[in-house]
Known about the structure:
Blueprint: H1 26-30, E1 34-38, H2 42-51, E2 57-62, E3 66-68, H3 73-77, E4 87-89, E5 99-103, E6 106-110, E7 115-118, E8 123-125, E9 128-131, E10 135-137, H4 145-148, H5 155-174, H6 178-184, E11 186-190, H7 194-210, E12 224-228, H8 240-252, E13 255-258, E14 263-267, E15 270-273, E16 276-279, E17 282-285, E18 289-291, H9 294-298, E19 308-309, E20 315-316, E21 319-324, E22 329-330, H10 343-362, E23 377-382, E24 385-390, E25 393-396, H11 397-411, H12 415-431, H13 462-477
Parallel strand pairs: 1-2, 1-9, 2-5, 9-21, 11-12, 11-17, 12-13, 19-22
Antiparallel strand pairs: 3-4, 6-7, 7-8, 10-18, 14-15, 15-16, 20-21, 23-24, 24-25
Amino acid sequence: MALSPSAQRPVRAKPGTSPTTHSGAGATLSQSPCVVIVGGGFAGIEVAKALQGSPARVTVIDRNNYTLFQPLLYQVATAALSPADVAVPIRGLLHGPNIEVLLDEVVGVDLGRSCVRTIAGREISFSSLVIATGSQYNYFGYDEWARLAPAPKTLEDAVAIRRRLLLAFEEAEMCGDDEERRALMTFVVIGAGPTGVEMAGAIAELAKTTLARDFHRIDPTSARILLIEAGSKVLGEFPEKLGTYAHRALTRLGVQVLLNTKIELIDENGVVAGGQRIATQAVIWGAGVKATPVAAWLGIQPGPRDTVRVNPDFSIAAHPNIFVIGDAAAVSGIDGKPLPGLAAVAKQEGGYVGNLIRHRIEGTGTTTVFRYRDYGTMATIGRSAAVADLRGFKFTGTVAWLLWGFVHIYFLIGFHNRLVVFVNWCWAWLTYARSSRLITGDEGSRSAPRLPPVAPSVVESSKSISSRETLRANAKRN
Length: 478
């Protein structure tokens, strides 16, 4: 979204500059109301789509030039899909002559002057502001763990996780020390929510099917995958029947599930969980999220998980022209329970707020009250195994897996992406192959995997040591 210290930083503009006209728009647009949308994710894109062709000038600001389908990031991290399969350029989605897209990053909001400040030094004025910056993973006060246990939230993180997983097997292939090899082939996933369950299942399939015949000195099927959960069950927010099924399905895949186990420490050599030291070089975080620091921008007291409390129309108190939507907003459904951080929620909120702003600008008004249409929740565990809770109807196994695949194909943005992902999934189902097994990235980048210290045993040959050093050098160059 629009917040990240690792964001690509565009060329710095002069302070005070602001995009006030669109090419070909003329003086009419320059005098029109200006709607600024911060964040080009599910929610922000829906707002912009609703305002295409409206009398407003619309400026969409995001630190990336693409919108990302986050529910499938774990498949990028486990080499099932490539980054381009789950991302689409924002400019390719928004063609309205009244819409401008800026590759920039918002760092603050000036409520008094009705403008946002960006990392490139711009001050962009607004008549209406929509903040849809989403969420980030919550390390519960241990932010230093983010470097050691990346979470699949961005494309960069997903590629870094993929690099870490694949490099662990390459290192193990050349390792002559049994203890170090066991650590290299141990993978720890923290958090048994949908992200953790899907990640653990995908790693198990990667190791035990895709890579099974790729190596000569190691047996990838012997890889140890642990899913660690502080709570008492898998998929705690799902009905108990579905959580029990997911637990059994993971066990069949060879995943070791540790419940009621808290993470006490994460360091360069592994984790300490429930008083037990687990040696590993690959830790993946999926234990919870919190909102981006929108509350701090607006100078208001944050709500649960740093979210912003909003009015029924998603505006904030005393500022009816400033809206917060998506994962950053604290919103409850008709049952009084907080709405989940799902793509469907963000898309519906974005469409509602976009239409609300358009009606205000056009002077037509609207009395429509937002109601979230809950179509259900799903999670996949592995090949032909998934769970689905669709408006009280509960499915498991192959039926749920097919439903999960259909829904994700449907919500993917762009026909090309839908077609490519569908073909990749069919091919993977038939052959167990994963075509995106590329080790890329840089050790110096955020969330990049750390390589274990070279500690060959006395029986490891000099040729093996030389190969290990060559691999490290090549990994750094890539």
